[in-house]
Automatic annotation (TrEMBL):
PANTHER family: GLUTAMINE--TRNA LIGASE, GLUTAMINE-TRNA LIGASE. Its EC number is 6.1.1.18. Residues 207-216 have a biased composition (Low complexity). This is glutamine--tRNA ligase. It comes from Arabidopsis thaliana x Arabidopsis arenosa. Coiled coil: none annotated. One of its GO terms (molecular function) is ATP binding. Residues 576-680 form the Glutamyl/glutaminyl-tRNA synthetase class Ib anti-codon binding domain.
Length: 793
């Protein structure tokens, strides 16, 4: 079998790209299948598959990388101008892109285009020479002072402001010649790097200087929403869809539709956060909120909280209440709270109109038959039934005259299309189930694929933002709006948030909760937002974490849990007051202290606060019996161990130095039961290392405040458990350790639900809802330092 030249080049795109002058590195590193496909098509459209000059090839490459297929309505015009070398400069290319962006779907005007892009403008060598001389004269003093260290880029920019269509390479060459003419040969001094004079500065000034020296963040880092076009630009082609009959439709708004939309919105940004009320939100939804609410907030626009409640069997009022509460907790304020069910009548009326236009039909295939026919790309036997017949049957569906499962309304799309989302998607199905919000008025309910895009249009959403798994649904989204003649929002997809050692699938989370692997949707080990809140994670930490990740389209990456924990530590370091708790108490008897003596010591709530104001301290009793962590004592000392050992002195934090004088062992002669020590009230022997936290009896013979402490670890051993076939077997059975007899300082007794603390040397903790007046329960939010344990250990 022989291959055509086109097939051969398609099979080996690198060879084709090298022919048009791309360098080896660029041609070898084009990884995107979309760019490869688009560039190949552009090369054949331009008729340069046998090769062309490098300038033309690079400009064609720019077209492929800047515009996805269908994004540029007048692409063929631009390719003609590049092929003929009428567009040959990067500046002309930039001007052309701006021109096409501005006109959107308007008719191409050759004269306007050529004027905007400098087509036919000939900038002579004499013009360049003259303009460069003028710029040098204006900057002569600076050039003579700085010599070859002067900013040549600024000189180039000044020339191009006066001669925008000049060849940049020629301008640079003339500037170089002028520099030599004015300054002569480079000297050794010209090649030396400037030495910055070192100055003595106070510590804060050093920090400031270091911050200034750091590289400036990009515009996208400062404003991640700068990538989104303004609403008035929503007239360009959204997507191009090829149909199996050979026709191609480029979907975009008409000027009339866009003007009508802008009149309603005032040109403001309108977004929406559209969760399904069928479960609890997880941290991935926090990213969706940041993207949608954040864009609206940044641009001074509006964001709806819209409940996508098209499936009455899975939705509960509990979930609706939870979602509203979590959105508010994260600091977002909806413009309006709406429900897809608010639009059930409009959606029904539009479905009738869709049938009338010949774009929908009532189908009687079973679910299994629909699946089989879609797989085989076969039309339903009822696809071509008369419009009047479908109208009559759809009305009977609405009135409850047809049994559940006996009929659906399907969109008449393109069963032979390359995109399976065009295989006659279901628009309505029968369900004799009352709706949590709409009541029992309806027995037919719209599908997500039918309702989502229409409600976006009805609510005048300017930017419909969703995760990348919905990218293939762009075709059906725009097909439906186009078929009904409705306004089309700008659709853009971003990558899902995936975090190590957890699952983010709502189905998997539901299984974990239903099978009682955890104590509920708000179990602190889950990445649900309710679980994170119960664990003590703050909204600020979550939003800062999301902002730090950015809004990208790079899919498949997994963010390490440590990154989230780092943001949590930064936030709690500033907001959580310090206190002392001993989780695994070991009794220490201070033998040189009177049995009835209690000393009240001052401990800093905020160690970094230099103020000695009384409000900066809390009281800690020190008595004859204190408790330290069992792990802070060893029978054998070593150089790298800073805890207590026989004959060794350590410092009790906020207290006194103590020296171990004796050890009481159990009958097994190994287990330490009690330590005897002496304290140094004069603090004459303060060790340089070895500061231990502790809790003392508040009064002679009175046990310290007893609390319960819950310590959490990663819920799954593997970094990506969702990929495992038996993923439930990967659950870490030691992900929660409960210590019911920890000791705390007396002041902690006043802690209330949700209060957060740093237990010194142990981590950050929060008061849990399981607390009672008799006993407080604390959840550890995060340790003080990043865990050194590896996944699976």
């Amino acid at each position: 079998m022989t291959m055509s030249v086109k097939e051969e080049n398609s099979a080996n795109p690198k060879e084709l790209f090298l022919k048009i002058g791309l360098d080896e590195n660029t041609a070898s590193n084009i990884r995107s299948k979309t760019v490869i496909s688009d560039l190949t098509a552009i090369i054949y459209e331009a008729g340069v598959s046998d090769g062309c000059d490098r300038t033309t090839g690079n400009l064609l490459y720019s077209v492929a990388t800047k515009f996805a297929t269908g994004d540029l309505l007048h692409r063929s015009e631009l390719i003609k101008y590049i092929k003929s070398s009428k567009i040959k400069l990067p500046a002309q290319m930039d001007a052309a892109i701006k021109y096409f962006d501005d006109i959107g779907s308007k008719e191409f005007n050759m004269n306007e285009f050529e004027e905007a892009c400098g087509v036919g403008v000939d900038v002579s060598a004499e013009d360049i020479e003259k303009t460069v001389s003028e710029i040098f004269e204006e900057n002569k003093n600076t050039i003579l002072e700085k010599r070859y260290r002067v900013n040549e880029g600024k000189l180039l920019g000044d020339v191009l402001k006066k001669l925008p269509w000049a060849d940049t390479q020629i301008v640079q060459k003339v500037i170089g010649e002028k520099m030599y003419e004015l300054l002569g040969e480079r000297t050794a001094a010209d090649n030396e790097k400037p030495v910055k004079k070192k100055e003595k500065k106070e510590k804060p000034a050093k920090v400031e200087a270091a911050a200034e020296a750091a590289s400036k963040p990009s515009e996208e880092e400062l404003n991640p929403f700068s990538i989104f076009p303004p609403p008035e630009k929503n007239i360009k082609v959204h997507t191009e869809l090829s149909f199996s009959d050979g026709s191609v439709v480029r979907y975009c708004n008409t000027r009339e539709l866009l003007d009508k939309h802008l009149k309603v919105t005032g040109g403001n940004f309108y977004t929406r956060f559209p969760p399904e009320p069928n479960g609890y939100l997880h941290i991935g939804h926090a990213k969706a909120m940041f993207v949608n609410f954040g864009l609206a907030e940044k641009q001074g626009g509006c964001c709806y909280l819209r409940f996508d409640d098209t499936n009455p069997e899975a939705e509960k009022r509990e979930y609706i209440t939870h979602i509203e509460e979590i959105v508010n907790w994260l600091g977002w304020k909806p413009f309006k709270i709406t429900y897809t069910s608010d639009y059930f009548q409009e959606l029904y009326d539009l479905a009738v109109e869709l049938i009338r236009r010949g774009h929908a039909y009532v189908d009687h295939q079973t679910g299994e038959e629909v699946k089989e026919y879609r797989e085989k790309k076969m039309n339903s036997p009822w696809r071509d039934r008369p419009i009047e017949e479908s109208l009559k049957l759809f009305d009977e569906m609405k009135r409850g005259l047809i049994e559940e499962g006996k009929a659906t309304l399907r969109m008449k799309m393109d069963m032979q299309n390359d995109n399976f989302n065009m295989y006659d998607l279901i628009a309505y199905r029968i369900k004799f189930t009352a709706h949590p919000h709409a009541g029992d008025k309806w027995c037919i309910y719209p599908s997500y694929d039918y309702a989502h895009c229409i409600v976006d249009s009805l609510e005048n959403i300017t930017h419909s933002l969703c995760t990348l798994e919905f990218e293939t649904r762009r075709a059906s989204y725009y097909w439906l709006l186009h078929s009904l003649g409705l306004y089309m929002p700008h659709v853009w997809e971003y990558s899902r948030l995936n975090i190590t050692n957890t699952v983010m699938s709502k189905r998997k989370l539901n299984q974990i909760v239903t099978d009682k692997h955890v104590d509920g949707w708000d179990d602190p080990r889950l990445m649900t937002l309710a679980g994170l809140r119960r664990r003590g994670v703050t909204p600020t930490a979550i939003n800062d974490f999301i902002k730090g990740i950015g809004i990208t389209r790079s899919d498949g990456s997994i963010i390490n849990m440590n990154r989230l924990e780092s943001h949590i530590r930064v936030e709690l370091h500033e907001t959580a007051p310090r206190t002392m708790v001993v989780v695994h108490p070991l009794k220490v008897v201070i033998t040189n202290m009177e049995s009835d003596k209690v000393i009240e010591l001052d401990a800093k709530i905020w160690p970094e606060n230099k103020s000695n104001d009384p409000s900066s301290f809390y009281k800690v009793p020190f008595s004859r019996v204190v408790y330290i962590e069992r792990g802070d004592f060893r029978l054998k000392d070593s150089k790298d161990y800073y805890g207590l050992a026989p004959g060794k002195t350590v410092m009790l934090r906020h207290g006194f130095p103590i020296k171990c004088t004796d050890v009481v062992l159990a009958d097994d002669n190994e287990t330490v039961v009690e330590i005897h020590a002496e304290y140094d009230p004069e603090k004459k022997t303060i060790p340089k290392k070895g500061f231990l936290h502790w809790v003392a009896e508040p009064a002679p013979g009175k046990e310290p405040l007893k609390i319960e402490v819950r310590l959490f670890d990663k819920f799954f051993y593997s970094e990506n458990p969702g990929e495992l076939e038996n993923w439930l077997d990967d659950i870490n059975t030691n992900s929660r350790v409960v210590v019911s007899d920890a000791f705390a300082v007396p002041t902690l007794k006043e802690a209330a639900l949700g209060d957060k603390f740093q237990f010194e040397r142990l981590g950050y903790f929060v008061v849990d809802k399981d607390s009672t007046p008799e006993k407080l329960v604390f959840n550890r939010t995060v340790t003080l330092k990043e865990s050194s344990s590896k996944p699976g250990k």
